[in-house]
Amino acid sequence: MTATQVAAFAAALGLGAMSPGPDFAVVVRNAVTSGRLAGLATASGVAAGILVWVLAAATGVAALLAASATAFTVVKIVGAGYLLFLGVRALRSAARRPSGAAEPGPERAARTAVAAFRSGLLCNVLNPKAAVFFVALMPQFLPRQPAVSDVLLLSVTACLITLLWFGTVATVVSGVRRLLDRPAIRRTVDGLTGATLVLLGVRLAATRA
Known about the structure:
about 80% helix, about 0% strand
């Protein structure tokens, strides 16, 4: 593979990452409600999910998922259910958030980071649209007979681009967290992201294979 091919792949993936979707909503909410560590952990989870899909597309697993109506529907239902779960939880948090929230201790912060990573990973892995995206994208950049090094190169590139974008989002959002720390604003953020995740879950559930 040439440097031009890798750069073109990075650009295409970057545009896909920047498009609004559930990954963006989850990263923003976790960064606002739990701080930079949780936001970066969520971004890392999303990047790990992208790695899963790149490898799945390169090995043909994603193509099988995209081609099988049954497999697509199963992943779609599970993914939509997870988005609805995240959305409803955010809406409930918006409804009951207390007037003041203490900063979490080290142990709680670590548990929050693990949960944030998991939410980013599952939000991406349980989205069958990602399978369709990478099945269409990967053949345009991989040789007809790709070497293991080619697959690894695109996998690392995909992870880095995704982590760079969502890590930047998490850092910027957490940087203005103090301005968003008023209870009314925090409830608004929870309400908006919760409603967005619910709508995205409903939209995913309505997607046809």
